[in-house]
Design a protein that fits this description.
The complex is a heterotrimer of chains A (296), B (346) and C (392). With 296 residues, chain A is mainly α. Chain A contains eleven helices and two strands; from the N terminus they run ααααββααααααα. Chain B has 346 residues and is mainly α. In chain B, a hairpin with a 4-residue loop joins β2 and β3. Classes of the chains: A mainly alpha (296), B mainly alpha (346), C alpha/beta (392).
């Protein structure tokens, strides 16, 4: 069964494609898991923030800005939007009894509105920015587009930088403290309110970067936010809500499972399988692989 | 002696009775004007109202947000459609739907009730997604096209029968069933088992001390809610003549959540009226602009932010206050004491 | 609210002052258009709407139909059959429309068709191309004015036979009812002209990444790839193939809905050379089409696509039939539409009485510099295929 042809044409490319998809999912899931880990907010509008990032990149490209400038500008521009959402919506209901449900509902409403607003501004058609790095490289007969290699590289860098910030810096220590025990952290002088707003903005900015990075690959249209969100939720749950390592491991493993499973079963069933994984995890290990941020 | 729940339910009954009267007036006026569309639209809104009622029962009393209640609505609709394609008997279709929903909700309940809170929302969401995908990919169920061409049937009630195509008769029939569900849910909450369901929300351990199995109570509430959704779903193909996988999608579950929240969580009747408001608003705004989602989204967020009890929760509170004021002055001290304790549960 | 009212009043005043507005004595003819204006098919609904609006404007400024003005009533069906049926019912029972059209996905068309039967009104589609609508699920009340999947695949297979008789064909489709039946239809058409298919793969609808299937495709070493994807799916499939250098030695062909005005800009260079069998191209060189394209461009600043042209043509069929019948009565209209021959931008079309399917000339078109260039034409009679409707 495993001859050279199979390896070269099918197995190896599948593993590499799974890796690209994995990095993409982890980028989207990172923001989601940080927001959940810190604020206990299930951000149902995360997919729409990803879409806003992609459309933002598109709009900036249309005024002639360079891709690298855009990659820096998009997350910066997302921050004020995120701060607005956090201060006007989420913090308003943060001290109510049912804040889990309430914040979920609020972000769900926000997602509905955001999708329609994108359609009003940009129209219903599909757009796609040009791939900033074109061409493909052939290694042992396996073709890898250069932009995808770049994506794996920059994705790893971003993920590493996020992990370092959270686990290796003083700022990260404050964040983890706030996640572990809000009151204790506050009494120790951590500006909890500011940390929350900052974390939310950080998560949203990450979704924005993901949108800008993935736009040339997956194209841009108003309903694109629904694309990743289910998979990203699964990754966050399997990895452990709020765990950065969890999101990384779960994202990479699940995308490989999905890529390799499609070799053996009809591809339509890979999505139900991923969901079933999420359900099984919720049933037997709802804390996920790694548990919550600040607790591990 | 009246506790807070009884007072609340009585206030709900006042709204429900008003609603029932308005619905009958509507039917009368619509019939006099020779309308068929609005009557059938109202029937559909009531059917989806059943789904919203099911969401409200779980969220408002057991404290569990289901993001996938359309699963049981869809199972009921598909089971009823499959039976009707073979035998044009409403009661057989209803029986089929009840059986299918009973079995699936027992299995589903065992799965989802392993978790609580926010995880419950996610797992119900995931379960409905998996089921919708399976239906969407199954040729025997019509796959993406669904089942189309379900015949118009006659519904036999004991002493007379009517055609499901008769808008007035079918509207009254649906109204009776959905109001029946409302009364059933309200009655159930007053029974000891229902009290145990509500108590779960406040304190699970206490339910165990009361001699109930927490697991069984949660499962019971879940199956009961699924039944309401499923039987409502079974009515859908009778009205519309087809079913499609979209009935199970998140959009359907999400609309039911919106209806329950806007109408008023924990009021039961609010969910039903909320569903009618949402269907009506979508129909009216949708004729003006294709951007109707924005309006619904803003309305929904405004209610969550500024009127967390929902429209009819707000109104009900006013009615409750009047009732409490009216309730005999001598026992006032005692009542308010009760209110304090039970209020935490409700 | 007040602002809206003022705007409406202003619009009304402008209409009243319009110089050449004919005066209509009778009740207007109402056409209900139930089409997806929001959701994932919104872009198709938009051009459907434009096609109807342009035709209605032209017909009205030329005196309407039988002296009656044509009025269009639009409803958003959100590409959800449950919503489509509800909206269609409103148009039928409240607005009392004379005719219903506009549905896009086949489930909506079938469901609204059933509603038409129950309300004794005629229904049509100008977009859905599932064979079943005028095939095994045909209805005496449903007419289709656009080409169905089989017509498209016959036209494309005939062209392929001429250009690449030795083609090794690989088929790709989205894994749902329409995607599968379209692939199956093309496979049949190709095999009937002795073109060998060497493999097929079905990817889920709305797949993010098609590159995971490229290995399987490449190891089969095809030289022609057929796709029945649409919209965003085509964009992802073709641009990702481009990324992987897979477009270099392969000819890509596909269903008519694969590349349209909705996604051609996003596709860019990846669309170049794509060939499809289709019922329309803005490049058709006839006076009727040139006039249509010019008018469409003047109004909407875009070239019309297949959906716009078929929708535009449908209103003229309605006009011709209503004038022949002398009324808009359902039974008389049904009779008048059967065997009706009328002129459209793409040439003469005829409604086949046996299954209510429009017979239209078909084209193989190739995308060159972002334009749909016609590379061959197949007469209507050759592309239509057998009538398999047995209900009437």
């Amino acid at each position: 069964m495993i001859d050279a042809d199979y390896l070269q044409f099918i197995l190896a490319p599948q593993v590499i494609n799974g890796l690209v998809l994995g990095v993409a999912i982890v980028l989207v899931a990172l923001g989601l898991t940080i927001i959940f880990g810190l604020l206990d907010v299930i951000n149902m509008s995360h997919g729409e923030f990803y879409a806003i990032g992609a459309f933002g990149a598109l709009a900036l490209a249309s005024v002639g800005l360079n891709f690298w400038v855009i990659l820096v500008l998009v997350p910066i521009l997302m921050i004020p939007l995120a701060v607005l959402v956090e201060r006007l919506l989420i913090s308003r209901v943060f001290s109510t009894k049912d804040r889990h449900v309430t914040t979920l509902l609020l972000t769900f409403g926000l997602a509905l509105i955001a999708e329609d607003v994108l359609k009003i501004i940009f129209g219903p058609n599909t757009h796609r920015p040009d791939t900033p790095i074109s061409g493909a490289t052939e290694i042992f007969g396996i073709i890898i587009p250069n932009y995808r290699m770049f994506l794996i590289g920059i994705g790893s860098l971003i993920i590493g930088a996020v992990a370092y910030t959270v686990y290796g810096t003083r700022l990260g220590a404050m964040v983890r403290a706030a996640a572990y025990d809000r009151n204790m952290a506050a009494s120790l002088g951590v500006p909890v309110r500011l940390v929350y707003t900052g974390a939310f903005a950080f998560g949203v900015a990450l979704a924005g970067i993901a949108g800008a990075l993935l736009a040339p690959l997956y194209s841009v249209f108003p309903t694109m936010g629904r694309d990743f969100i289910l998979l990203a939720f699964t990754v966050v749950i399997v990895g452990g809500m709020g765990s950065i390592w969890g999101a990384l491991v779960a994202g990479l493993v699940l995308s490989q499972v999905q890529a390799l499973a499609s070799l053996f079963i009809p591809p339509v069933w890979t999505e139900p399988i991923v969901f079933a994984t999420m359900i099984v995890f919720l049933m037997f290990r709802p804390q996920g692989l790694f548990g919550k941020i600040g607790h591990a | 002696m009246l506790d807070r729940l009884t007072i609340s339910m009585r206030a709900s009954h006042v709204i429900a009775l008003t609603f029932f009267a308005v619905a009958l007036c509507f039917a009368l006026i619509a019939t006099l004007l020779g309308d068929t569309f609005y009557m059938r639209l109202a029937s559909e809104a009531l059917i989806f109202g059943g789904l919203a009622l099911s969401v409200d029962f779980l969220l408002g009393f057991v404290g569990q947000l289901s993001l996938g209640q359309a699963l049981y609505f869809g199972i009921g609709a598909y089971a009823s459609a499959l039976v009707l394609m073979q035998v044009p008997s409403f009661w057989l279709a209803l029986g089929g739907a009840i059986l299918a929903v009973l079995v699936s909700s027992l299995i589903g309940g065992l799965i989802v009730n392993r978790v609580r809170g926010i995880y419950f929302a996610l797992i119900t969401f995931g379960l409905a997604q998996v089921a919708a995908k399976v239906v969407y990919n199954t040729r025997e169920l019509g796959a993406s096209d669904g089942i189309i061409g379900i015949p118009v049937i006659n519904i036999n009630l004991l002493f007379f029968s009517f055609s499901a195509a008769n808008p007035l008769a079918f509207f009254l029939f649906v109204l009776a069933i959905i109001m029946g569900f409302y009364l059933l849910a309200a009655w159930l909450l007053e029974t000891p088992a229902g009290r145990a369901m509500i108590a779960i929300r406040a304190n699970e351990q206490r339910v165990a001390f009361l001699g109930y199995s927490v697991r069984n109570v949660r499962l019971g509430a879940y199956v009961f809610a699924a039944m309401i959704a499923g039987v409502s779903g079974a009515l859908y193909p009778v009205l519309r003549g087809f079913v499609s996988p979209e009935l199970m999608y998140f959009a359907t579950s999400g609309n039911a959540v919106i209806a329950a929240i806007v109408g008023g969580v924990g009021t039961l009747i609010g969910a039903i009226i909320g569903s009618i408001l949402i269907v009506g608003a979508k129909s009216v705004i949708g004729s003006w602009t294709e951007h109707h989602v924005i309006f619904i989204g803003i309305l929904f967020m405004a209610v969550v932010l500024f009127m967390p009890k929902g429209i009819f929760g707000f109104i009900r509170e006013r009615i409750e206050m009047r009732m409490i004021r009216k309730a005999s002055a001598p026992t006032e001290a005692k009542t308010s004491d009760e209110t304090g304790v039970a209020g935490k549960q409700a | 609210m007040k602002k809206l009212a003022t705007t409406l009043a202003a619009a009304g005043a402008m209409l009243a002052m319009a110089p050449a507005a004919p005066v209509y004595a009778q009740e207007p003819i109402k056409i209900g258009v139930v089409t997806p204006l929001s959701g994932s098919y919104a872009s198709i609904g938009r051009t459907v709407r434009w096609g109807f609006e342009l035709a209605a404007e032209e017909i009205n400024s030329a005196g309407g139909i039988n002296g009656r003005k044509l009025v269009l009533l639009f409803e958003d069906e959100e590409a959800n059959p449950a919503v489509a049926v509800q909206k269609a019912e409103r148009l039928l029972q409240v607005e009392k429309v004379d005719f219903l059209t506009g549905t896009v996905n086949s489930a909506s068309t079938l469901a609204v068709g059933l509603l038409g039967e129950r309300n004794n009104r005629l229904v049509s589609t100008t977009v859905s191309y599932a064979d079943s609508i005028t095939g095994d699920r045909c209805s005496p009340n449903v007419f289709r004015f656009n080409a169905r999947a089989e017509q498209q695949s016959v036209a494309l297979a005939a062209w392929l036979k001429k250009e690449k008789p030795q083609a090794k064909l690989y088929l790709v489709g989205p894994d749902y009812e329409m995607g599968r039946s379209t692939v199956a239809a093309f496979k049949r058409s190709a095999e009937s002209v002795n073109i060998k298919s060497i493999g097929e793969i079905f990817a889920p609808l709305d797949s993010k990444d098609y590159s995971q299937y490229f290995g399987q495709i490449r190891s089969a070493r095809p030289d022609v790839i057929y796709t029945s994807t649409a919209g965003n799916d085509t964009v992802r499939l073709l641009t990702q193939m481009q990324e992987f250098n897979m477009l270099r030695n392969v000819l890509v062909i596909g269903a008519a809905g694969a590349i349209t005005g909705q996604n051609i800009k996003a596709l860019g260079k990846a669309a170049e050379g794509f060939v499809t069998g289709i019922g329309y191209s803005a490049q058709i060189d006839t006076p009727e089409n040139k006039k249509f394209v010019a008018a469409f461009n003047a109004k909407f600043k875009e070239d019309p696509d297949l959906f716009a042209a078929d929708s535009y043509g449908m209103l003229y069929a309605y006009k011709a039939a209503a004038e022949k019948a002398g009324s808009t009565d359902t039974d008389k209209m049904r009779e008048a539409l059967r065997n009706l021959t009328w002129m459209t931008p793409q040439g003469q079309k005829t409604i086949r009485a046996g299954d209510h399917q429009a017979m239209s000339p078909m084209f193989a078109v190739r995308i060159e510099n972002g334009q749909f260039k016609i590379v061959s034409t197949i007469p209507a009679a050759e592309a239509i295929g057998p009538d398999v409707c047995t209900r009437f």
